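Q: Can I see a sequence and its folded structure?
A: Here is a first one.
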Amino acid sequence: MDARNATRTDAAARRPAPPTGLAASLAVARSGAGALGGRRRLGMLALVGLPVLFQVVVLIWGGGRGSAFANFVWLVDKIYLRAIAPLVLIFVGTAAFGDEWDGGTAPYLLGAPIKRSTIVLGRWSAAVARALVLLLPAILVLYVLCLLPFEGAMANYLGELGAVLLATTLMGLAYGAVFLFLGLALRRSVMVSFIIALVFEGFIGSLPYGFGVLSLGFHARNLVWRLTGHEGFHPPTFGLDVGEPISAAASILFTLLAGVVLFLLLSAWVLRRKQFAGGAGTDGADS
């Protein structure tokens, strides 16, 4: 008996300690690497690449008509920030945990000796990274295609390009957290996410400041406008007196606090309350 206990003690001593901190977050992120493979990834790649393909057609067969920075602004504002970016983030955000529930592997993930907050951070960072890997290069290529016919234009608008990429990144961080939370909290999360994107991006985000400030997409566009001064990104006023415009700092703070921090905290709270009958327990690392 003593020999058997000694063997068990030696085996436990040789067992590697569970990862913590950044290592744990990276491990969780890698565990969901297959969530956006196959047809889903190809579909998002096709969606993100449509405006780029359109601009290639304009450049080659249209003789460059419809190019220049104003056209780039229109495509980014109307197509990417209002439609494509929210759609991509819906798919990656809701899939961050949705596939675990659909495939029945959630008990194994939540049974690991890793804090729930660390699991949320790992899956959120992985989802946002996948979205930005698609969105940012597409916007960069679109910038080149729109300004290529004009000598010196690409170098002249580099600051404006940086503002667009910054706003897209912040929007990705915030909407990634929102849709990850919906994927955890709701059974029909994709449908609800589409409704939210339609209402807040297509309607509320286009209203004057008093209403539009509720939209994360509004703050992304307002940030670009405040940093570049380009009227193509100016939030609509519909002829109303809207008072003092919202500053770039206020839009950044709203995006980070109301979007990222709030919904990541809510996601961790929902994940701590998840229960699985007959699977791995939810007690253990539930802080």
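Q: Show me another, different protein.
A: A second, unrelated one:
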Amino acid sequence: MSHRRRHRIIGPTAASFADVLTDVVAALDLPSAAFVGNSAIGFAAARLAITDPQRVSRLVLVNSGGFIAGPATNLYCRTLGMPAVMKRVLPRSIRSYMKATGDNDYAVQQRVLARANTRDGAVLTAALWRSFGAPELDLRPRADRITAPCLVIWGSKDTAIPMRLGRSTVAAIPGARLEVLPTGHVPFSSDPAAFLAIAAPFLAAPSDSVQ
């Protein structure tokens, strides 16, 4: 396993997802490829583009973590990182940030709510949220190391990672392009046709013409 794990991870964290991605890519010795990541997995993909740039040919970040930090954010994440708080807040929170519009969204929403209603589910979900307040989750100081062409797609109705943070993500990554959809946290689920209309040409374009 990765040498980065110097402490025991209790529950899932965004950093552990990034460690797993790095380990899998290295173990399989994958050639340079495009990576698409939403939320915590967006953080994992962006960190890979920073630490192993030769592995990432293109990067698509969708309502992604990794480029937000500050006292208010840390307090918010630590508060939601308490299982008792998470169990109470999540039902209302997920409906707010998902802005479900169709069967795919409602299916995701129901799975999350069902998991949160169990003790283990609340503990695991809280651990993930708590991890977002960790200092290593702020990729902004290293964002200039991202050399792959980067497309940022943001659902403007997301209340968990709102639109202003989408703009700060684009501002942090050299040459990044922002596209906005009128959806919640998972635009690829809420409006797959519009999402693909933006992402597919970017992913298919020659390397010298994607920006």
